[in-house]
Amino acid sequence: MSIDKPNTDAAPKPPADPRDTVPETPDAKRDASPPVEAKIGPETGGHPELTPLVEAFGDPDTSPGAALNLVETFDPAAMNDELKEDLAIVTRDYGLTLEELPENEQKKLAAYWLGVKKGRTGEAKASTADALEARIGYLLFDRAMQKVDTLTQELQTQPARSYEELEEKLRGVMRAITEAAKNRPVTEDNEYDWKELDFRYRNLLELKTGADADVRQAFEKTLEKYSDFIEYDLMSFRLGQDLGDIQKIMQELYGRTPEEMEAIKKENRVGAAALIKELADKPKLDIKDLQDLHRVNNKGIVPKKFGNIRNEKGAMPPTFYERVGLLTEDLRPALEDVLDSANRVRAGGIGEEEGQYTKQEYAIIAAQLHNAILDMHPWSDRNGSTSLLFLETMMTKTGYEPPAEREKDFYKNVANILDQNVTAMTLVAEEQMRMKEPGFYDSQYTDSQAKVKDYRRVINVFRAAARRPRVKWEGEEEEKE
What we know:
mainly alpha; Fic-like fold; two-stranded antiparallel ribbon; 2 strands; 1% strand; elongated
């Protein structure tokens, strides 16, 4: 089980982080200041145990009262069983044990924790907690990153003797990464720490590159276990860094080759075809069915949460070519209307009796409903493929059998689904052409003057962000910038 050498260089640290020694940070003030002996006077003998106090004094967020509070609570000899139990809980939050910290860091952590826990007055305690809890976080996060580095290096320098041992080593690294991440929400304030986490994760994935089949399989199994962290947290961070489209990021997050991605798509297609057959005889399709179609077809292609239709209030809708998807408040009711229409048509069926449809009529209506769903853009990604799955589900009523093998050519796929119905095929093609014209899905939920104005504004906001000219709508007064 060979593993290539990872990148063990230290991650570059942005100068804005409070742990870096730049003039405006507390640590820089500490490093540029006189030695401890000069600050606390010769009578102390320059005891290194007092270093945590000096560091706290240098923090601009620590008031004089809070600093004095820290002095009053500080006791280098207070490492009793109760305090050790408290510190064990704190370190456990970062995936560490107290014993993994060097003795000097244990003492520093104890000093900070006592200051947080035993502040004498409410005001001073709150001020102390803000400053010292941040320092506790910095200390433990940095130690957690060192642990990740050590475990990753061990993977490369001490090859596993069995597949099971390799899996356990990989799980150890991922546990260390995810435990550290629990204390760092993906926010702008924590951007530096997430760059550190992402750097370590990339180093781990380098071990998968060029490895043999057993190693790659162990990675796949381990990363699947931590897929929530990968697809929610790491994905959120990388999307915030604007590092490419979602499918490409997913491929990179799992370290998959193009061949592996193709194999996943083939497997997903088998599952999608099976689900379409299950839904063929269901009396009524609903939004959950659409979400299930999206999930089964896109497992490993986009994050699992993308299988839900968009529901974040106030979020900007996605764009596709020149068009914009429905706003969240308009999406669900419009989608339910389309599903109601679809269910009425499916209930009518194919035949010559009253309420039934010819195959040609049915295919035309199915194509129109497909176009409606595509134009709404219910999902954050992969709307086109899911809309086609809906079309396949509709066409099972005409005797259509969904193939288990993917057809990569879009128009050939549409022709097969619609049984070569030229009119229905033309409708789908026209919808593809409409994407080149600025607009949005037209329904009772979007036809008021206020709504039209909202959607046109959204379109121009996206165009402005892309440095493209505004659309000047016919008959509308030009808005002031």
